[in-house]
Amino acid sequence: MSVPAGAHTMSTGLATLTVDGRTVSYRLLLVPAELPEEPRRLFAAAAAGDRASAEKVVAILRERLTIRAGEQACRSGRALVQGSGVGDGRLSLELSLDCPGADRLRIRDDWADVFGSHHQTLARIEVPGGIREIAFLADAREAVIPLAPAAPAGGLGFFRLGIEHILTGYDHLLFLAALLLGGGGALALLKVVTAFTLAHSLTLALAALGLVHVSGRLVEPLIAASIVWVALENIRRRDRVSRRWIVAFGFGLVHGLGFAEALQPLSLPPWPLARALLGFNLGVETGQALVIAVAVPIALWGRRAAWGGRAALTASLAVAVVGTIWLVERVFFA
Hints:
Structural class: alpha+beta
Low-confidence stretches: 1-8
Shape: elongated
Distance between the termini: 29 Å
Order of helices and strands: EEHHEEEEEHEEEHHHHHHH
Radius of gyration: 22 Å
Strand order of the largest sheet: 5-6-2-1-8-9
Number of strands: 10
């Protein structure tokens, strides 16, 4: 059983797998509001207690999660679907599996077939050998987990997740575009990009480590507001280029809180969290560097052209309009 999914919807599932002897307990947290339209309706109805919808969701769960102990498939047991009960709009899926004795588990996550190619599942896996963290992506669906003590793995998955997060984080990319449209030479742009990078790296680390917590209901509208602010400053030409790095740093602190939402709910122990944080942040910076490497030469070239000023103003106006639409959606319809 499958549910058609939208092609460009970004969603994140937070999974916990616990191995206790032959029993593997799986729990997946989803936010139905993040899902494409058709699965959103089905999963939201299941969260609200509709029995028929819950049965369909359980059938999808049994189909899209595959765990093998060695070469033998684990037997699927009791399943449960329920809303979180605390008003945060989350849905919890739970499944118990019986896995015969083996020295490793092979886990396959096919949720991308249901929620679209931009879905990712961040998994915290508790085995006798320790705790491991894995990022399951549309093109990285399987992981082999040794049950004996071993060095934790998974950093590469979080590095890839960081790259995908920035390249598909259209609000972050639009904010960068607004900054670059503000004018200035290569040195001024370097200061702006450096300030933004330092700021979002700082709050990403603080939030992921649990030292700072700001609700996403506040962070997401602020990110949209930052896009509108910078774009309007470009249009009004009241923001001095020499001080644009201050604006980039201030709003970068907000964007870092947005990045942290991908890691914060995992509740990883300190060392695995530090490794996941490092890999994720390196991925974010790598993706950002790729974007900047393309955008900055184009921006510098455009400013030397006779039409460059008009093009920058037109683009800033378009950015302001999109940012305003996102702001209204996140304030009134989130």
